[in-house]
Fold each of these.
Amino acid sequence: MLALGLNGSPRKGGNTEYLLSAFLNEIEKHKIATKTIRVSKKTISPCTECGYCEENDGCIIKDDMSAQIYPLLKEADIIVAAAPIFFYGFPAQFKALIDRSQALWAKKYFLGIEDPKKKSKKGFLLSLGATKGKNLFNGVKLTAKYFFDAISAKPAGDLCYFKVEKPGEITKIKGLEQDIKKAVYSLLTPLKTRKKIFFICSENACRSQIAAAYAQYFAGDKIEALSAGSAPAEKIDDITIQAMAEEKIDISDRKPKSIKKILLNTTPDIIVSMGCKDKCPYVSGADTIEWNLPDPAGKSIEFVKKIREDIKNKILDFINNI
Ligand SMILES: Cc1cc2nc3c(=O)[nH]c(=O)nc-3n(C[C@H](O)[C@H](O)[C@H](O)COP(=O)(O)O)c2cc1C
């Protein structure tokens, strides 16, 4: 699992930076990987409302948003949006990132292609401001709610603090550590209590990617589906991406992973092998299921679609029986 922290404050060593890093440190205590993006240091042009994303996959503007942030927003299981209040809203750099998430909104609502993690992805808001007006956080809460919807994350709570102005003032908030502990615990509990199912094949470019995406799509709230290969390919098979897009499931930004690397940080409950035979790992305590599906690499779209249907049926059956 990955928790992505978006630091929306341009001030280095400021209150948002402290709050976000304390929140992510608490997440790491639960053995979940984290990554922080300092939004103000990224090149993110504002949305030009060109309409490209309403007819095509992605955004026509090529900058850090397309190169780095869209893929991370898709990969992450938890997105923590952290920002100080600037004029009752998000700082401009963060607002540009939010506006550019329109490309993901359009992918979902115009093109009908969904994020397979939509059932489990969570969004959490951290914010703070100098004053104590009762409406201080209304703007960011509403914007965050719709940002999380665009990136297919369910809003899972917020921590917002009044009267925090000079750098370091956040550390004086009474009960901050307890607030964070409690919030992280309730954020992670539904994710950590899912059964871990590890789908494996040789290259992690076709079959195991399809299986993991379907498992997430149909039962991501009950299953943590991972996938990897014994000899991971450089990239996912293009025909597989196309076959899944026909199913309205987006796996375009996924990357093949190594079985060994996944097993360093994860102990699966069940391993489902697509047919990598003797190269499949033995993991003590995990049940192993063998599906023995033919390798669709380099085959026609019809062949891949047939395998896709086989995998879909097996996944639906598997979910019913788990
Ligand atoms: C451009 C700008 C606009 C701000 N607007 C507000 C505001 O509308 N309401 C408020 O309470 N604080 C406002 N503040 C204060 C910041 O929210 C506050 O100093 C915060 O602690 C900064 O967090 P940081 O250290 O993470 O950057 C503003 C600060 C700046 C620089």
Note: The pocket of flavin mononucleotide is lined by residues 9, 11, 14-16, 84-88, 128-131, 136, 164-165, 167 (CB under 6 Å).
Amino acid sequence: MSVNQKLLVRYPGGKRRLLTFLQDYLPDPSEIDGMYVEPFVGGGATFFYLQPIRALLSDVNPELIDLYRAIRYAPRKVWAVYCEFGNTKSDYHYIRDEYKPKTLIERAARTLYLNRTCFKGMWRHNRDGRFNVGYGGQARRWVITEKDLIFCATALRRVSLKCEDFQPIIDQTQRGDFIFLDPPYRPGYKEYINNHYVWQQFKYSDYERLTNSLQCAKLRGVKWAMTISSHRDILCLLKGNYALRIPRGTGKMPGTLTSDSGEVLITSYRIKSGERL
Ligand SMILES: C[S@@+](CC[C@H](N)C(=O)[O-])C[C@H]1O[C@@H](n2cnc3c(N)ncnc32)[C@H](O)[C@@H]1O
């Protein structure tokens, strides 16, 4: 895929804008002996860009994983239902609050519709697990076409899709596998209030679980790379690995980036200009 390929699912913090930077530090898919594993797949920018032959993708968000499952199985049917949904704010509220999908295809079409027409592609649920993001307009809805769903279905054909917490996914990796991780960042005040990702928060104890699993995976001969906020509480859990600050913004040349983003790339393997933690 090129960096310009459209992604079906909008994601706040998706990695698409960083692909030109990341590609220099990730292995070529042909060099991965085992499986490519992405335990926080979200919109899957990195997976769809690399298109590894053998992959395991997972996320704790069941609506997202069902969307990928349905698209893999019947992209044209998902598209047909998606096209039937209305174009107004009240249609959005009807689909969000009253429409009761009966099949996997209908559920997937609803998820795609809400993601493409809600405010900024956010995923937020109330305490009962109901999606409660406000209306964002139709501007992003028709940016995707049936062809993009078919592209996605082809890329997912041989992929194993799971809806699980990250820990068992990482713990089952073996020597030769490569893990790319883009966990929820250490939340700021606003994210705490708005509960940005699904209905659970990602807490400091989750970072501890995550980093423990990653250190064990490294000892088993698994390589991994992770993007994360460069907060010292998190970095000190990752001693012995390599860190590189991720620049932000578009430079003068297309695809180049400038100035600091507050994010870092951490790898279990040595990288050019990477600092040992
Ligand atoms: C920053 S987003 C990933 C964005 C993705 N890299 C992209 O390019 O679109 C983080 C993802 O982690 C998922 N997540 C949150 N907590 C999780 C957990 N405990 N286990 C697995 N996935 C989790 C969220 O549902 C969300 O999709």
Note: The domain at 16-60+164-276 is CATH 3.40.50.150 (Rossmann fold).
Amino acid sequence: MDKSRRAFSIGGLLASATVLMGKEAIADTASSGNYQLAGKPEAFVKKMGIKYPIVQAVIGGSTPDLAAAVSNAGGMGGIGMSWSPEQEVRDFVKATKSLTKAPFAIGYVLSFGANTLPAALDAGAPVIQFSFGTPSKKQIAMIRAAGAKFGMQVSTVDGAKQALEAGADYINVQGQEAGGHIQAQGSWRDHLPRILEITGKTPTLVAGGLSNGKDLRDVISMGASGGVFGTRFAASKEYPSHPEYKKRMINSRPSDTALTVCFDGGWPGAMHRVLRNPTLERWEAAGSQGSGMRPGEGDIVGTIGDMKFERYNLFPAFVVTQGKVEDMAMYAGLGVGAIKDIQSAGDIVQGIWNECVGNKA
Ligand SMILES: Cc1cc2nc3c(=O)[nH]c(=O)nc-3n(C[C@H](O)[C@H](O)[C@H](O)COP(=O)(O)O)c2cc1C
């Protein structure tokens, strides 16, 4: 496995090791309803066994601590594990299960396969979330045999058709508003209405640019069953990103983000949305050229122990990263402008819900 990709998960492991130690299981809060939005969101939360139609995106570098905090607060937490070795997948699933009895998702970017899916299921992963592709019949059979559920991120009507044919338990429609890697060719607004025409009873969520309760209310009023929040939880206390990255999250506007292929080291040509930074600006000024012709290529901009990360690598800066962290990828979606402080993930879930249903905090 490419060392730089692997480190996307190792950074999370290092950062979460201390928080995991000695923590006791937190009570399950995802039981009984009390949701105030009838119809599709209620059907979705009932199907998944959660309390609120608030899903944390399976962001790379996320930890058991973050996923469990979201799930314990009544949302559905998640951990992106595409680049993690098998033992880490087992450890993370078990650690999350020790912190919450509520459902959480393990995420796979199918461009990189899902070799550790059997390990995740064996360790008891309750939900699997796929992006950038459709799982094979064999993988789906494995998920069903384990009694788990699965969701699929799509961006078009054809993608939604494939998800329905695969029997996905829910669909998540991603748009280019999203932070991180983007499979969408346009806004989710361009595709959602036509996707909703065909999804019927299969819960359909929106991902991209959502930050608060008003955003959730808006997508539900458009016919969605709930919302997926990535950037918002990347700006949580539990997400182990570097303080510089979190500071940029608080101080950035939507126009401070860029949809680009600049940081494609480790995933050539993959589109992503990041905060503008010196690496991006220098690359754009030099004509946005491809690999081999980019300014400062080969510079080491970050290290974790003996691991070194070159400029243009997809690896973001974690709390354990040292170096020119401001030059590394900082993933953020268009919803970044609404983030004013770094809260705990549980407070974020409750705040989004309170605002969505009009409750005072
Ligand atoms: C920091 C960060 C890391 C991400 N990592 C992954 C990942 O590993 N796998 C994946 O499928 N999507 C990843 N995404 C994209 C999310 O799945 C989701 O589509 C996106 O966060 C939704 O848009 P939002 O960030 O505006 O809420 C990431 C997003 C962010 C912000």
Note: The mean pLDDT is 91.
